[in-house]
Specification:
Helix content: 25-40%
Distance between the termini: 34 Å
Number of domains: 1
Protein name: AsnC family protein
Number of helices: 3
Radius of gyration: 14 Å
Bound molecules: zinc ion
């Protein structure tokens, strides 16, 4: 929880760049991170505030997303996060940023039509 101030400043910066239409790679270079970590953060932010993070790409095909379901040991929220990406090592709760998490299960989401509206 003590990192929250830093986190939200980073979030603001990511949001400005995102709305500017910068790619995840460009955002990552600006904040000193990597593209998959930025993509992960945007996904988490979007889950919480979908209207603030409009999708820039339109997906026509259904996607199979392999995900792991975690439970936050602090606020007890359940959330799923995409597998295979290197950011899994650095998973934090999307609501309180706690990193004491319990992995509940592994699952596959079939996602059709990932449009905002
Ligand atoms: Zn939490």
């Amino acid at each position: 929880m003590q990192k929250q101030g830093v986190r939200s400043k980073t979030k603001q910066l990511i949001h400005e760049l995102f709305i500017d239409g910068k790619t995840y790679k460009e955002i990552a270079e600006t904040i000193g991170s990597n593209a998959s970590a930025v993509a992960a953060r945007v996904k988490l932010y979007r889950k919480k505030d979908p209207e603030l993070w409009p999708r820039l790409k339109k997906y026509d095909d259904p996607l199979n997303i392999e995900a792991e379901v975690y439970k936050c040991l602090d606020c007890e929220v359940l959330f799923a996060i995409e597998k295979e990406l290197e950011f899994l090592k650095d998973v934090t709760c999307p609501f309180c940023w706690e990193n004491r998490l319990q992995m509940i299960s592994s699952t596959v989401f079939k996602v059709k039509n990932l449009e905002t509206h």
